[in-house]
Design goal:
CATH superfamily: P-loop containing nucleotide triphosphate hydrolases
Number of helices: 9
Strand order of the largest sheet: 6-7-8-3-9-10
Oligomer: single chain
Number of strands: 10
Mean pLDDT: 90
Shape: globular
Strand content: 15-25%
Low-confidence stretches: none
Helix content: 25-40%
CATH architecture: 3-Layer(aba) Sandwich
């Protein structure tokens, strides 16, 4: 569903990602794991089109999307939940979800009911301004806003950062439900191994902009991964 080939990305003359390749099959949860600053966010921003690679290419399904703008990638089925949530603070929960529907060609509002079923708290606060929500509620909203368009690929950047444990558990349950449908490929950028372990089918470990280890969740040992995420 998603293939990245020999991707090199940087800012100015500097290089953040150097010759990175990865494959995510349909329905997999692929975890990009590593410490802060190793290139996880840069990789996701490049996949969604915020950054342009110096070399390499990105394929989504049968399409080479390397030169496509972000809105075209979203319409093709790539959803993105950035680090820090970035909800529209002056719009209500419901209005934020309506904006998420803009990435879909058919836009049935019944999909909003699907999101309320996945995140019941959002239904309770549907008319509340997103800027007045807790960090955990905003994170649920940001994920729901991406999912409402029924993406084929969902990019999640540090979804547990700054979130209380009870909400992290709710997010994990919701993502497991999505995972069980087998319809959405999830690319999860994460530095906390405990959360990644709940979901990941496959790991790519990043260090200094390079893939230094990779493997299926039942093959790559936690000790090997922990070497690259421990402070």
């Amino acid at each position: 569903m998603l293939r990245i080939e020999h991707l090199t990305v940087g800012y100015g003359d500097g290089t953040v990602l150097d010759d990175v390749s990865l494959i995510a099959e349909r329905g997999q949860v692929v975890c990009l794991i590593g410490r802060n600053g190793v290139g996880k966010t840069t990789l996701l921003k490049t996949v969604i089109g915020i950054l342009r690679p110096k070399r390499g290419r990105i394929l989504c399904g049968n399409h080479d999307v390397t030169a496509w703008p972000s809105h075209r990638r979203a319409a093709a089925g790539i959803g993105y939940v950035p680090q820090g949530r970035l909800v529209f603070p002056h719009l209500s929960v419901y209005e934020n979800l309506l904006i998420g529907l803009e990435a879909s060609s058919d836009r049935p509002t019944t999909r909003i009911a699907e999101m309320y079923a996945l995140f019941p708290k959002l239904k309770e606060i549907a008319n509340r301004a997103a800027g007045k929500l807790s960090g955990g509620e905003q994170q649920q909203l940001a994920i729901a806003r991406a999912l409402v368009a029924h993406p084929k690929v969902l990019l999640l950047d540090e979804p547990t950062e700054g979130i209380q444990p009870s909400i992290v558990d709710e997010i994990a349950v919701a993502l497991q439900a999505i995972q069980e449908t087998g319809k959405v490929t999830i690319i999860l950028a994460e530095q906390f191994l405990d959360f990644a372990t709940i979901l990941a089918n496959y790991y790519y470990v990043l260090e200094s902009g390079n893939v230094v280890a990779s493997g299926h969740a039942d093959v790559l040992s936690h000790a090997e991964i922990h070497e690259y995420v421990a402070i």
